[in-house]
Design a protein that fits this description.
Shape: globular
Strand content: 15-25%
Oligomer: single chain
Order of helices and strands: EEEEEEEEEHEHHEEHEHEHHHHHHHH
Distance between the termini: 56 Å
Helix content: 40-55%
Structural class: alpha/beta
Number of strands: 14
Length: 330
């Protein structure tokens, strides 16, 4: 049995995160409480598997978009993440309200595992849907169909779990299903791999594929996790390239964002992924994207007038940032 109770207000955390290579300025949880099916989900912010109880209490946020807009207005500028969705949205409407509130506050929105009833009426260019694989959810790709039918760019996201989702046979089947479902992009998430997380991963593998549980246990408890995840990411990206799929979601553009700023920030985020093994440079590129988001004005005329270098605070990246604006204008 699942009990739903109304939360005291709109739960928005003004914490910058990275999701599938994109900077997220804040995130909203319209429904909180790990209850209901499927038995597991993968949290894209904490990069870990989460177990769900079959029954319990779920806290549901307000169905007033203005309440969510006010909550988002207290956070730094930039795209935000809303979700995961919940079947209760058909009755409560909190996920839809959160997404519409984010749009009203001028932001682009990443929808995490949206339910059909939670799709907002905001302008389609301001929305991108992320459908995340989870063990035991046999037809997870079905979640792509509703946002695609609404004209929302939608793609599939896969956690890289050494000894499981990084294996060639698994990836081959996964990409086949992704393409069949109409995904417009794919992305991979590097699982955090902490001790507690690994125990839960073994539990999940034993539940969905008992015959592989022992081998998987040996793999994840004795491998170099960081190196194994890096190899898995490379394998994923090579397979995506072979099949002609992008490995980073498009960046949604909010109604308050100047188009040039949004496109330039997106390009810098993509460059940060390209050099992610150089953590210092990757961090600088993300900081530059954040500065563009928070600049408070349309920077395209500044670039056109040749004055961008005078206001941009990251001198070492000035040429790359200015080039990002010029690519958008070409």
């Amino acid at each position: 049995m699942i009990e739903y109770e109304e939360s005291a207000g709109a739960v928005v955390r003004c914490v910058e995160s990275d999701v599938a290579g994109r900077r997220v300025a804040a995130y909203a949880t319209p429904c909180s409480g790990e209850v209901g099916g499927p038995a597991f989900r993968f949290d894209p912010l904490e990069r870990r598997l989460v177990a769900r109880r079959p029954s319990g209490r779920v806290s549901v946020g307000p169905w007033d978009p203005d309440a969510w807009a006010r909550a988002f207005s207290r956070c730094p500028p930039g795209p935000v993440l809303v979700g995961p969705g919940s079947p209760v949205d058909e009755i409560r409407g909190s996920c839809q309200a959160a997404a519409e509130g984010a749009f009203r506050s001028g932001r682009g929105v990443y929808l995490c595992d949206p339910e059909p009833s939670g799709l907002p009426e905001a302008a389609r260019g301001a929305l991108v849907a992320l459908c995340i694989w989870a063990p035991g959810d046999e037809d997870w790709e079905r979640r792509l169909a509703p946002p695609l039918a609404h004209g929302i760019p939608s793609g599939a996201v896969l956690p890289v779990l050494p000894g499981w989702t990084d294996e060639r046979e698994f990836l081959g089947e996964w990409f086949t299903r992704v393409i069949s479902a109409g995904a417009q992009f794919t992305a991979a998430l590097a699982a955090s791999g902490g001790g507690d997380e690994r125990r839960l991963l073994v539990e999940a593998r034993a539940r969905v594929d008992p015959g592989s549980a022992d081998r998987f246990f040996e793999k994840i408890h004795h491998c170099d996790w960081t190196a194994a995840v890096r190899e898995g990411l490379a394998r994923f990206r090579a397979e995506a390239a072979r099949r002609g799929l992008s490995t980073i979601p498009p960046r949604p553009m909010g109604p308050a964002e100047p188009p040039g700023n949004s496109a330039a920030a997106a390009r810098l985020e993509e460059q940060a992924v390209e050099v992610e093994e150089d953590e210092h440079r990757s961090s600088l590129l993300l900081a530059a994207a954040r500065w563009i988001d928070e600049s408070g004005r349309d920077l395209t005329p500044v670039v056109r007038e040749g004055n961008f270098g005078k206001v941009f605070p990251f001198g070492a990246l000035a040429r790359e940032a200015e080039a990002a604006f010029r690519v958008e204008r070409s």
